[in-house]
Amino acid sequence: MAAQHGLSHINLLPKDSFEFSGLGKILKWTTSVGRVLVVMTEFVVILAFASRFYFDKKLNDMSETIDGKLAIIQNYSDTETQVRDILARQQAINNYLTNRINIAAKFTELGGIIPPGVTLDSMDLTGKNLSIRGSAGSEASYAQLLLALKSNGNLSKISLDNSSYDQTTGTVKFSAQITYK
Question: Rounded distance, CA 34 to CA 123, Å?
Answer without folding.
Answer: 103
